[in-house]
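Thread: "does anyone have the structure for this chain?"

Original post by V.I.:
We have the sequence but no experimental structure in hand. Need at least a predicted one for the grant figures.
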Amino acid sequence: MKSPICDLLGIEFPLVAFSHCRDVVAAVSRAGGFGVLGATGHSPESVRRELRWIEDHADGKPYGIDVLIPENMATAGESGVTYNSLQSRVSDRHRDFARDLLLKAGVTLPQQTVDAGQPQPFDPERALEILDAAFEFPIRLIANALGVPPPAMLEMGKRHGVPVAALVGAREHAIRQVNAGVDILVAQGTEAGGHCGEVSTMVLIPEVLKAIRPIRDVPVLAAGGVMNGAQMAACMAMGAAGVWTGSVWLATTESETTEIFREKMIEAGSRDAVRSRSRTGKPARQLRSAWTEAWERDPSSPGPLPMPLQTLVSENALHAVDRAAAAGNQRAREMVTYFVGQGVGLIDSVRSAGQVVQEFKSDFIEAVERLDGLVAE
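Reply from O.Q.:
Generated one for you, tokens below.
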């Protein structure tokens, strides 16, 4: 296809797949798309293992990596913050609320032990260390969410000749990113899973394109609710250079999600994907569950803590929920949640990642031919 994204990334089809699962990344790249490994939560050592595996299984096809360096969180500007040093900032009220939620569902919250020097969740310094490790491999893209990439990240990309992408959810964010020097914008509508804004994809794409046109020519990937090739064609008809996708890969055989979560995705409708601060402390779209409902609607809820403190409350608890649900605890099953977008309403089965790529291609071609048929000769 003729697209600036294909030229920049060395791919044949401008379908970018974000996933925390190396199997999905490799499978999408092998099939002609572009897999991006979500590296938040990794260490330099673990990301080396993941990229080495991808390198061995991607058949020489290109792939990239995504980190999360928030511009705004409770510890912004502090250095050397560790997981353990943050524990004292989490109130007993928040811990007790989470523990009581689990106890009512028959789930015991295990004692969590972490290394004394383990960095805080979403630690900016650790993210740069991960990128350093990633550049030991022939990655073709680095991407950042939740703000303008720090100058060190932009410099890394320039030094290695690798494009830097950044996610945006509003036109003013796009303007800041282009002025900062990013190479690719991912304009992500509110339909998206994970951290997202409030503007729909259908409005955001033309709004971003119009806003950046006078500044600089930067290719824009459309994101948010894109689950098939027809939607991809619609986004490119609006001027996008391709699409960035995430939720569609959660319902693949290779995905990192649990079997129970896959079942819940198939059962869910689009309105079951809700924006909630109950997992990370920032509004993130995820599957509605007893966990999200309690934190957002229960009158006794203390309310979610800001990022990164809420993660100290949620992650260990939700891992315990997943284990209990897998063991047959039905009340725990009601609490199972994970990041997913409104496109969950279009998920009706679990397929392989390679099959999803091929369906994107065929749906895209059919949509383009349909549009061509509307033009009078």
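V.I.: this helps a lot. Residues 4-81+120-256 form a domain with the TIM Barrel fold (CATH 3.20.20.70).
O.Q.: and The mean pLDDT is 95.
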